[in-house]
Specification:
Helix 8 crosses helix 10 and helix 9 crosses helix 10. This protein has 15 helices and 36 strands. The N terminus is likely disordered. It is of the alpha/beta class.
Length: 858
């Protein structure tokens, strides 16, 4: 396909010589050796080589008389052999006209074809008339001075320039931009062309076939912009050898050409990342497809869960109407192991992947301890002991934030709060602009009425009590209020001038708010777990110290405890572990050499080397890898680096025959028989409320021997069930409009406390059946018991079989309850349910129930 004249193209005046215009040999690279042009007087003739193969002008070729100009028309003679009969060239003065021949088939200029007057320039627009027959109505060419403008016709289909299309002023250059709007219809929103002087800017790959930049091609330095380079690597996978991109500031430079067809980067293009952040091409990788990134994640032990956008998410959850105006920025949802805190932000993920692909070495983090009296101190008072007794702190000096870095910094804190910090219950993070406050800092606890400050993003001061009321309806902060609201004192951090930094774990002060202009960041982590607090601090400083003036350095802070002891944080501790290579090979099922295993572990950010006679691997655990606790964690990383798919599948040396657990087999058989008896199976929750198993059944909770949940999510799931009856009664209540009778059964586990077991509780497999109708139907339930015993081959006698005896139970109607005995022990009860129990479960008709333990029949 013919493009515009190349940037900087000039046509010298030549007489009887060889004219090196655009390569006439079809590939557009250079004039062929020995190429000659017929004698021409007083002009430079810019015809494309008419001789088909570009070797010479054809016999009898004639050139129309042209005065004082260079005529850049493509050879109009279809096959390039000669000018067509009657071909005329419009008079042009003082210019070189680079229009492609407008006559479709090249035979002649279309009727009425006119060329706009142009002064002192060469105009390289491709013929805008789609099929080349004529210029579109109203087509205008902007005035351009001292330049050759090589824009391809921006109107996609070539019919017209898009509404509002403007060409930026350019001085002393030829600007070879291909229309930047992905589909060629318009420039993308916010697209700007940097001012360039005395050069040719070849954004579209200038090498014709897109394989490489031509010799001597240079790209000028550009500041504060994102360049939409067409991927110069032909196939879009990578830049060609020797291709260099100038230093760019405050931007991300497009990696693979994202426009599919090799055009400019579309608006909102993002590189595979967690938050839609553009990454410099030296930072991550080039991918020809999302599948490659998915494969890379899998190799690294992660999972690319979904490729979506904010608009797609809102559209799925709330409908397309709500999604209007939402961002189309691509989001990569990546499942990260819960204990890999170093992968919760883009910085850690990119760094980990780069080390894994052996593109960079793992950085070494350095703790800088200031000179005596120059460092920061955090003093902890004894008042905090009953609320949040621990605190650690650090300083990031001379850090440089951009919008993306700032967003990532805040996002990491939130992810840590939800993960290791257990929704701020264990640790709360506070980050502050150090230049707005003065140390030393004091971490203390005061009565709510004594604390007053302006919370983050608020316009006035509030007392601590007012702050709690203010955020009681806040969708985000209300979930943390319960952590301190019932305490007599609230934790608070002051500077030496009494300025409030934060009231952990609720809110920071507005005075110390971090902005993009912040250069020194004071980070404090308060909590109830000192180990978790140290891990959180290490993660934050190791992830973002790379943006400091001296990368990967952190300024230490001295923490003074109530007893006078001091400690320097962050610890940034490196430790070593020794692992035997044969241990790793045996556990993973491979046979790698010690040096190979050391290399695999190093790729997983665990710097390793062989020691002794090759009998041990010495593995260095960096402060970013708090998840490495035991040798088995090192083995896991070795397996990930080796590749799970590369582990050879072998038949186990130990042969076993799988068999169903006898209790489960019995359960399955009973289910079939109960269903055959006309009962419908139900499956209910194993957790229920205390009221379900106690109050509604007329019992005290202490008599149930129930296992209580320490932190239940709702009142419906407070305890593990001790009987199956409440679940079936609730099921009937939810289906009471169904035709009567309702006959349900369930065979599942119940849980009761047992101090003799290692976990303090024991499961029992129970069978429960219920009959709900206008009459109690005790005889039906009794008949079901007989049928169950029949299939279990238990005869109806007291000695070796089963029997029922009159009994009482709080859940049963007086005189209508019996206890079931089998094999010398009580296995359950059956009877008519008490009217009070029926009423409490919102039922209106009588019912009978059978519940027995089936484990004695094993």
């Amino acid at each position: 396909m013919e493009t515009a004249a190349p940037p900087g193209f000039t046509v010298p005046a030549v007489t009887g010589t060889a004219l090196g215009l655009r390569c006439p040999g079809g590939d557009g690279t250079a004039a062929p050796p020995g190429f000659t042009v017929p004698a021409v007087t007083g002009t430079a003739l810019g015809l494309r080589c008419p001789g088909g193969d570009g070797t010479a002008a054809p016999p009898g070729f004639t050139v129309p008389a042209v005065t004082g100009t260079a005529l850049g028309l493509r050879c109009p003679g279809g096959d390039g052999t000669a000018a067509p009969p009657g071909f005329t060239v419009p008079a042009v003065t003082g210019t070189a006209l680079g229009l492609r021949c407008p006559g479709g088939d090249g035979t002649a200029a279309p009727p009425g074809f006119t060329v706009p007057a142009v002064t002192g320039t060469a105009l390289g627009l491709r013929c805008p008339g789609g099929d080349g027959t004529a210029a579109p109505p109203g087509f205008t060419v902007p005035a351009v001075t001292g330049t050759a403008l090589g824009l391809r016709c921006p109107g996609g289909d070539g019919t017209a320039a898009p509404p509002g299309f403007t060409v930026p002023a350019v001085t002393g250059t030829a600007l070879g931009l291909r229309c930047p709007g992905g589909d060629g219809t318009a420039a993308p929103p916010g697209f700007t062309v940097p001012a360039v002087t005395g050069t040719a800017l070849g954004l579209r790959c200038p090498g014709g076939d897109g394989t490489a930049a031509p010799p001597g091609f240079t790209v000028p330095a550009v500041t504060g912009t994102a360049l939409g380079l067409r991927c110069p690597g032909g196939d879009g996978t990578a830049a060609p050898p020797g291709f260099t991109v100038p230093a760019v500031t405050g931007t991300a430079l497009g990696l693979r050409c994202p426009g599919g067809d090799g055009t400019a980067a579309p608006p909102g293009f993002t590189v595979p990342a967690v938050r839609g952040l553009l990454i410099n091409q030296n930072s991550l990788f080039s991918f020809t497809a999302d599948e490659e990134f998915d494969e890379l994640c899998f190799e690294f032990g992660l999972e690319l869960d979904e490729i979506t956008s904010e608009k797609d998410i809102i559209s799925k959850e709330k409908g397309e109407e709500k999604a209007k105006g939402a961002s189309d920025v691509v989001l990569y949802k990546i499942d990260v192991p819960a204990n890999r805190y170093d992968l919760l932000c883009l910085e850690g993920l990119v760094r980990g992947l780069q080390v894994f692909k052996e593109r960079i070495s793992l950085p070494r983090f350095e703790k800088i301890i200031p000179a005596e009296g120059e460092g920061q101190r955090l003093i902890i008072t004894e008042q905090t002991a009953q609320i949040r007794p621990h605190a650690v702190a650090a300083v990031l000096r001379n850090i440089t934030f951009t919008k993306d870095r700032y967003d990532s910094f805040i996002d990491l804190q939130e992810k840590l709060h939800q993960n290791i910090c257990r929704k701020r219950a264990l640790v709360a993070i506070g980050t502050h602009d150090l230049d707005t406050i003065t140390g030393p800092f004091t971490f203390t606890a005061k009565a709510p009425s004594e604390i007053k400050f302006k919370p983050l993003n608020q316009s006035q001061e509030y007392t601590a009590s007012q702050i709690m009321d203010l955020y009681r309806t806040d969708s985000h902060l209300r979930h943390y209020l319960h952590l301190i609201e019932n305490k007599p004192r609230y934790p608070v951090i002051y500077d030496s001038n009494g300025v409030v930094l934060s009231m952990p774990p609720i809110i920071n002060g507005d005075h110390t708010k971090i902005t993009l202009n912040t250069r020194n960041v004071f980070i404090e982590c308060t909590g109830t777990d000192i180990t978790k607090a140290k891990i959180v601090l290490d993660v934050i400083v190791t992830m973002f110290s790379e943006y400091c003036a001296k990368p990967f350095t952190v300024e230490a802070v001295e923490v003074v405890y109530p007893n006078g002891k001091t400690h320097i944080y962050p610890e940034l501790a490196y430790r070593t572990e020794k692992v035997k290579p044969e241990y790793i090979n045996k556990k993973v099922g491979i046979s790698e050499t010690p040096s190979s295993l050391a290399k695999l572990l190093t790729r997983m950010c665990l710097k390793s080397h062989v020691t002794g006679n090759g009998n041990h691997l010495e593995v260095e655990i960096p402060p970013t890898r708090a998840d490495i606790i035991h040798a088995c964690d090192i083995v896991e990383d070795a397996a990930i680096a080796y590749g799970y798919n590369n582990i050879q599948m072998v038949i186990p040396k130990t042969y076993t025959i799988a068999n169903q657990l006898p209790l489960n087999k019995l359960t399955e058989l009973l289910r079939l028989d109960l269903a055959a008896a006309g009962f419908t199976e139900a499956l209910t929750f194993a957790l229920c409320s205390q009221e379900d198993i106690a109050d509604k059944l007329g019992m005290d909770i202490s008599a149930t021997n129930a296992v209580l949940i320490a932190n239940p999510k709702t009142a419906e799931f407070q305890v593990a069930r001790t009987t199956l009856l409440p679940g079936l009664l609730k099921t009937i209540a939810a289906n009471r409009k169904m035709p009567l009778p309702l006959k349900l059964f369930e065979i599942s586990d119940i849980v009761v406390k047992d101090p003799n077991t290692d976990v303090g509780a024991r499961n029992y497999r129970h069978l429960c059946a219920i009959y709900y109708n206008k009459s109690p139907g005790f005889e039906i339930i009794h008949g079901l018991l007989d049928r169950v015993m029949q299939v279990l081959e238990v005869p109806p006698n007291e000695e070796n079989g089963y029997a029922i005896k009159a009994a009482e139970g709080t859940a049963f109607f007086p005189g209508r309850c019996a206890e079931v005995f089998a094999k010398g022990q009580s296995i359950g009860k059956l009877g008519v349910v008490h009217p009070d129990v029926i009423t409490k479960f919102e039922l209106t008709m009588p019912c009978s129930v059978l519940e027995i333990n089936i484990e004695p029949f094993m």
